[in-house]
Amino acid sequence: MKTNRGFSLLELLIVVAIILIIATIAIPS
User: How far, in Å, CA of 22 to CA of 14, rounded?
Assistant: First the structure.
């Protein structure tokens, strides 16, 4: 297992997806 700053590509994609979901909820416009 190769750990790069404790982040894997899958974890990065999940974090981005969560941020996008929160952004769409926080910004109704």
Answer: 12
Q: What is the pTM of this model?
A: 0.57
Whole-number pLDDT of residue 1: 57
For the chain, domain boundaries: 1-29
Tokens at 13, concatenated: 């994609």
Q: Which two tokens stand for residue 25?
A: 């909820």
- Report how far residue 1's alpha carbon sits from residue 19's, in angstroms, rounded to the nearest whole number: 26
What's the one-letter identity of residue 7? F
- Amino acid in position 27: I
Cβ burial, residue 10 (10 Å; 0-12/13-18/19+): exposed
